[in-house]
Amino acid sequence: MFEIRLGEQGEVVMTGRLDAAQCDKALQFMDSVPAPRVVDLAGLDYVSSAGLGVLLKTQKRVMAGGQGLRLINVNKHIRDIFKYAGFERIFEIVPAGS
Amino acid sequence: MHRATSTAVGLRAEALLQILEVTRKLAAPFELTEVLAEIGEAARSVLRGERATVWLFEPEQGVLVLTGQAPGEKPIRAQLSQGVLGLTARSRQVINVPDCKREPLFDPTVDLDVDNDVRCMLSVPLVERSTLVGVLQVVDSENGSFSAEDERVAETLAAQCVVFIQRERMSRSLAQAEKLDREIKLAREIQMSTLPSEMPRLAEYDMAGQFCPADQTGGDTFDIVPLDERRLFLLLGDASGHGIGPALSATQMTGMLRVALRLGADLDAIFAQVNNQLVEDLPEEHFVTAFFGVLDVVDHTVQYHAAGQGPLLHFQAATGVCKWLSPTTYPLGFMKYPQIEPPLQIELAPGDILGLITDGVFETENPAGTMFGTEGVEKVLRARHEGSMSDLLARLLQAVHVFADGHSQADDITIVLLARRGEVAGRTTVQRYFARSLDSLDPMFRFVGDFISARSLDAELHMPVCFIIEELFTNFLKYNAESTQDISLSLGHTPDQLTVRITAFDVEPFDVTSAPAVDTTKPLAERQAGGLGLHLVQQMADTLQYEYSERRSMITFTKALEAG
To answer: What global pTM score does this model have?
Structure first.
């Protein structure tokens, strides 16, 4: 189960499992948000490389406008994957609980 | 006695015309008896004899038969050793007897001299391509004896007659075969209509059953009847014989079973009574092999009688062993059982499978003459026992089909499979197949989650293991899209290591371990999403191995388990 929506402060909220079966839905949503700034991953249990691709693509678009994505409330597992993927060099990552 | 050797040349014009007339008459459709009467009459008239008879040869009994001349009259049978008649049949030559009284071989009983007044005889074999069809005999009590020309006339007439006798016999057997075909087809439809239309749904159990009729004969049947909340009756039967009989016997047995169950009869009583009835009804050489069993879904037992039906398959999941059980007694329909032994019992542990399989499966032959056998069943079962029973059944039928390699199906094939679900005790490896679709990701993740929690393994492993599996699985979908075969996922563990194996079938090789490394330190503008997945797999797996053989790609990876 995967859900994506806008939160109260205009942040993108992702919950559930972002796998290859869900990445089209995620990308469509991200593309529909003109200038996303914050992605809240507190409820995200899982992300696969297809999901990483969605974040990468969105980051490229946002940075072209001189901005950047903040990934907040990132749990340990997903932080590990971000680390392996070299995401800490590309995104501002805020771990859960900090 | 004089054996004729002449050929049919230079016949008198009158005789030729008469023979042609007979030919014309016989060209119209006739019953065989009419054909014979017509031939006899023609021979008598052409050869100016007093009486003519046509004997037909019955190759199966090796005798000559003269059908009744008048309605209700019994046919007369003669051995090939008897009389001039027999000699004609044996030698296949025309025999001209000028004076029957002086001929030692002449036998009034078969050479038909009832009134003891026959003077001369012409005995002509009816032969088609050296095959004996019958004998034509013409006798006379006056006019001296038959001439050499008469012999040639008789031979010419005989040659014509053979054609008509054979035509008549052939069309008769064709008509009979057509009628039999229609009857068999109808009986088969009735037989099919008695099969259960769907499998009962039971908690903890998975069932599948299928009947695949052979083209012509066969008498397989099966039935599954819920008795009450916890018990289910299982029947599998295979009636012997050819033609319409087996289908009828199979149908009769299902009918008897249904009635007996309605009357509340128990397993032993049903078994004994169905046998008694079949003993009364079946022809002596026919019988029915059958499995009668009752599954108890609370005790997880099957009590059964197997009358000549076997081997029965009991797959034991805990050890992975296929146990083949023998019949408990001789087939139904031979004779009454002097006493009914108590039923035997199979205990079904979680993961166990009971397989009721008719001999059509085991005895399927390939063109080299090798049989599918129990080995063929075991091979499929070992690879597919974790899946649904309907899937296993389909795989078995497919394996039989592939094995037969175009050899036609000689016998009915029936398979009933019953599996008890649940975690297999003491097992450290589980395996399941998943369709080539992204929709499989969810059930795959649940499969991994169930495995980890059922064995109290480190829950932290769930996420990275699922990650690696998803990357490898989607990789197979992307790079081996030409294959239609499901992908196998197996999970196993020792105290210190979790091992995962993912296998794709009927694919070209694609070595994931040699995927190029991705430079994750590059700035974003130079980063691509592609290739990242396999790069991460290599990072996250403790070990990663790739093997390729027989068009199958097998990837195995491990993750260390914390001690304790």
So the answer is: 0.49
